[in-house]
Amino acid sequence: METTAIIPLVSSIFVFTLGFFVFFKNSRSMVNLTFFFHALSITVWLFGTFMMFLNKGSMTEVIFWDRFIYIGVVFIPAFMYHFCLAITNRKGDFFLYLAYFFSTFFLIISRTDYFVKDVFVYQWGVHTKAQLFHHIFLVYFCSYAIVWFITVYRYYKKSNLASEKLQFKYFFIAFLLLFTIGPLAYLPAYGIGIYPFSYLSGLIFVIILTYGITRHNLMDIKIIATEVFSGLLILAALIPIFQTKSALEFFMRVIVLLITIIFAALLVRSVHTEVRRREEMEQLAQKLKKTSDELAKANEGLKQLDNAKSEFISIASHQLRTPLTAIKGFISMILDGDFGPLSEKIKNGLAKTYIANERLIRLVDDLLDISRIESGKQKFQWSKVHLEDMAVPIVEELKNIAKMKGLKLVFHKPPKPTPLVVVDADKLHQVMMNFIDNSIKYTKIGKVEVFVTPEPKGSVTFCVKDTGMGIALDVKPFLFQKFSRGKGSFQIHTEGLGLGLYVAKLMIDAHKGKIWAESEGPDKGSSFCFSLPAAKAEK
Fold first, then answer.
1. Residue 228: C-alpha distances to residues 18, 32, 76, 223, 260 (Å)
2. What is the rounded distance in angstroms from the CA atom of residue 405 to the CA atom of residue 4?
3. DSSP reduced 3-state for 70
4. Spatial separation of the C-alpha atoms in residues 335 and 357, rounded to whole Å
5. Nearest-CA neighbor of 479 among 526, 524, 426?
6. Contact 126, 56 (CB under 8 A)
7. Strand, helix or coil at 165?
8. Rounded to whole angstroms, how far apart are CA atoms 208 and 9?
9. Alpha carbons 453 and 161: distance in angstroms, whole number
């Protein structure tokens, strides 16, 4: 038997074996099923070529086996495209039905002299001569090969899974080599005699896919491939035992067989363990992905609700702001005597109403600020200032209120100007006012001190320190959250809603600063501070 005949025989055995084990692994899988039929059509081509070379002395036999070859070859494009649809998770389309129609047509026509006729004998083999419909078949064959590669490449580019992309690389390379080397076998049909290395394409195809199976679980037959490999190892070690010529040789080969069996068992066991762990990891990954998707969906829903809430608060606050401002104006005019003299009793009632209205206005302003900042619609008017220059008028404004409570309000002005900071003066005035006002409200006896201090790391700190009710340790983490108030604060100041410090944090964050509170515990006083980065010096 010549070497040129052995090449297609060996390739056919390997291709069929791979196709069989893929099919055996999961016969219900469309991927496995279409791959098996594709491998079977290639097997028919390679085995028929072997028989054609084996009988090259008889023209009748050559023509018979070449037409046998085309029983498989004419279906290669159809099975190949069907496999392509399966691995890319696509359903059958018009082109698939068209492929099976053409394949069936060429199967029928290949039985006639309109497809192949006569015999071309060359140095390394023999082949029938191509006729008219063979030329048309090659156009069909090449067209579907191109469609296969385009479809697989597009799916590869869209895939987001690294493992799937790696598997498709092996598919792509294996089929690329099969359909660039294999079609060279058509050349003798056109009178071009070449060495039949094209029939090695089947063997190369199997080697690449087998490597992908064992290394990257291609088509999920890794366990079967390992068991087959182990069985071949054991068989290779067993056969020589029956050819031994001495007791020593028999003993040595039995030892080799035992070692091979142990090695094969350990190999199969390790692969089983690896596959089981991989399946567990894949299940875990799927659960995590499902949970992640559910959380993302829930988070999106919460964002929509939060946006709707912010929009509602913004609209409602705008609608409230106008009448409250009008009420404030009218009460002020009445108290000033613009509508005539008032009794003391009426003045006291109106004064209380004015204070309550002011409180509502501040609440509405806080809600508007929160809505604007959270929605990113807050506008800032930036300017450079010294913090101590802003602190002085605020302290002077609140001194009388502190004095009425019997408290001492002291501002420790720095000995020299602190570095300039970039701020929105109105927004920062609101924060500083809130800090000092809160300290006065929640301090029964003692004093409230205000500090402005330059820091060595290029920032300026504003702090308000009091001798008031202090802060419990379990409350501190929540102080700057929305609607959060310290324990016991309702007993001292009943009107607050816990928005002031939250607004202050939003404002300081917008200024790229830091805000914090310090206290040693209840009834030990507290300090509320913020720091802002110093303005960059102009060049």
1. 10, 18, 27, 9, 14
2. 111
3. helix
4. 14
5. 526
6. yes
7. helix
8. 19
9. 55
- Cα 280 from Cα 315, distance rounded (Å): 52
Asked whether 10 and 203 are in contact (CB, 8 A), the reply is yes
Distance of alpha carbon 396 from alpha carbon 507, whole angstroms: 23
Q: How many secondary structure helices (H) and strands (E) does the chain include?
A: 15, 9
Q: Mind listing the pLDDT tens digit for each residue in 284-301? A: 888 888 888 888 888 888
Burial class (CB in 10 A: 0-12, 13-18, 19+), 254: middle
The answer to whether 418 and 383 are in contact (CB under 8 A) is no
Residues of the chain with pLDDT below 50 are 488-494
CA distance 92 to 160: 24
Per DSSP, 538 falls in state P
Report the alpha-carbon distance of residue 414 to residue 396 in Å, rounded: 17
Cα gap 373→510, rounded to integer Å: 8
Q: 193: burial class by Cβ within 10 Å (0-12, 13-18, 19+)? A: middle
What pLDDT, on the 0 to 100 scale, is given for residue 223?
Answer: 62
Give the length of the chain. 539
**Nearest-CA neighbor of 70 among 110, 38, 10?**
110
- Its sign, for the CA torsion 308, 310, 311, 315, is positive
501-531 core/surface letters (b: 16 or more CB in 10 A; e: else): bbbbbbbbeebebebebebeeeeebbbbbbb
Write a three-state SS string for 303-331: HHHHHHHHHHHHHHHHHHHHHHHHHHHHH
Buried residues in 431-440 as b, exposed as e (16+ CB within 10 A): bbbbbbbbbb
Task: Give yes or no for a contact between 508 and 461, defined as CB atoms under 8 angstroms apart.
Answer: no
**439 contact partners, CB below 8 Å, separation of at least 6:** 448, 464, 465, 466, 468, 526, 528
pLDDT at 226: 65
Rounded alpha-carbon distances, angstroms, from residue 504 to 81, 383, 501: 66, 19, 5
Amino acid at 374: E
For tokens 């069909």, what's the residue? 140
Instruction: Retrieve residue 24's tokens.
Output: 């055996």
**Confidence at residue 492, expressed as pLDDT on a 0 to 100 scale:** 43
pLDDT digits (tens, 9 = 90+) for 456-512: 888 999 999 999 988 888 888 888 887 655 554 444 444 555 677 888 898 899 899
For residues 275 and 281, give the distance between their C-alpha atoms in angstroms, rounded to a whole number.
Answer: 10
Cα-Cα end-to-end distance for the chain: 91
Phi, psi of 418, deg, nearest 5: -80, 165
Tokens 């899988």 -> residue? 29
Q: Cα(353)–Cα(337) distance, rounded to whole angstroms?
A: 16
